[in-house]
Specification:
Elements (H helix, E strand, L loop, with lengths): L20 E4 L19 E4 L6 E3 L4 E11 L4 E6 L2 H7 L1 E2 L5 E3 L6 E8 L5 E3 L4 E9 L29
Antiparallel strand pairs: 1-4, 2-10, 3-9, 4-8, 5-7, 5-10, 6-8
């Protein structure tokens, strides 16, 4: 059962609460809205807004509709991530993890899913298929240097396993 304010005694919650608008599409009506499953959850579960079961075979990819549109406030993004239980038990993941929804996007929220398992997986209406994390966005401003060297660090240009196992 999703948890809403107030928080459970002794637990701290998010440092900031923001409001976003949500509009249900016809095929999403009747589903529960995205919801946190515990007081300290970072992500809200997204549900499949499909009218018939969807078979996701091994190595198949699909954009699964969630049945709603939303308007995030400026300065925020939504990240679509796999649900750990589906990933562990069935190999269901998000191929572009995390998928990014920008604050100016107004289309239907969809979860891109891939079946990395060896068995077909059936998605049914209302199934929790992915999670959505809302996060602040920082825009970077480049400082182009005249020269070819950056400030030195102990790591330098070492990458891809250079820090050990």
């Amino acid at each position: 059962m999703p948890l809403s304010s107030p928080l459970i005694s002794g637990e701290s919650g998010p440092t900031e609460r923001v409001t976003a608008e949500l509009v249900w599409l016809e095929h999403g009506r009747g589903l529960e809205p995205p919801a946190y499953q515990s007081a300290l959850s970072a992500g809200m579960d997204l549900r499949a807004a499909i009218t018939a079961p969807l078979l996701l075979g091994p190595r198949d990819r699909r954009a699964v509709p969630c049945g709603f549109k939303m308007a995030l406030p400026a300065g925020y993004e939504a990240q679509i991530r796999p649900r750990s239980g589906l990933a562990l038990q069935h190999g269901i993941s998000v191929p572009n993890a995390p998928g990014t929804i920008d604050a100016d996007y107004r289309g239907e929220v969809m979860a891109l899913l891939i079946n990395l398992g060896s068995e077909p997986f059936t998605i049914t209406r209302g199934m929790r298929i992915a999670q959505m994390v809302v996060a602040p966005v920082t825009h970077l401003r480049w400082q182009v240097l005249d020269g070819t060297e950056l400030s030195a660090t102990a790591r330098g240009a070492g990458g891809f396993g250079s820090t050990g196992r």
